[in-house]
Amino acid sequence: MLSRKAVMKKLRRWRNWRASLKSRLGLPLSLVELPVLNQRLIVREGMISNEADYDQAWLLACLLRAEVYFDIGANMGQSALLAVFCEHLRHMLLVEPNPEALTLAAEHVIMNGLVANVRFIDAFVSDVVNEPVRLWTVGSGSAGSMYSSHAKTAFRLHQFIETQTTTLDRLCEVHQLVPDFVKIDVEGAEYLVLRGSGSCAAHNKTRFLVEMHSNTQLTMTENAANILAWCAAVGYRAWYLSQTVELTAPEQLHDRGRCHLLLQPQAWTFPDWLRNLQQSGPIEAAMAAYTAEQHASPARH
What we know:
Elements: H1 4-24, E1 31-36, E2 39-44, H2 56-63, E3 68-72, E4 91-95, H3 99-111, E5 118-121, E6 124-126, E7 132-136, H4 152-157, E8 160-167, H5 168-175, E9 181-184, H6 190-195, H7 198-201, E10 207-213, H8 220-234, E11 236-240, E12 245-246, E13 258-265, H9 272-275, H10 283-296
Parallel strand pairs: 3-4, 3-9, 4-5, 6-8, 9-10
Antiparallel strand pairs: 1-2, 7-8, 10-13, 11-12, 11-13
């Protein structure tokens, strides 16, 4: 007999399959309530899961201590919805090169009452401005990439979007904001985003959570070496989150296909409030740690 956990997992898979089929047939997706912490979020069926991703606890922990958040690679607003729980967040920029995904992100944000201080940008964040780039993707898929080997289904179907680049520095300039927290999830283009953020990093106030990727066109060792070179150039340090250790050599990540780094100004130590949060851990742990911290001290950094 299946356990309750196994039954719920099968039910979620069936719902996701049904939502995928509806999307492919051009049928409207139902609105459903998604229980997260003490809230019930309104989302399109099958678009967002309440199962913990690798980085959700780390992401929420950083968001709870942020006032200006840039979500680079926002997709359908999965990460942005965590802002529901962040009382100090004043501004949020959602940047996504896939207009279909960004439309869903906007809908999710609006339906959950977060739109007051949110801006939506349809662009591919890179190291240059106004250059054409090809994004390999299918529909609102979450794995769209500039690397065809990273988006295998899209490449096989020859499905892509032609879009334009911007830089993180240009976003800061146009919107007159300097983020204290940036999430980067761009399926292999992490280094390009950072190369275009030198002026932002020079303020020494921005914490970056970077999802690292590799593929047949870019090894993890090469990607890590690029990130470390950027850190050295702008006075930052990199931390390998799953092991809570400083990243000092690219070989530390040689066997990883995907992992997460925390990038901070050189003078900052690794945050104590991240030490006990595990990869794929529950976001309840991040919220509990934050609540305890607030009771002990008003400081947030």
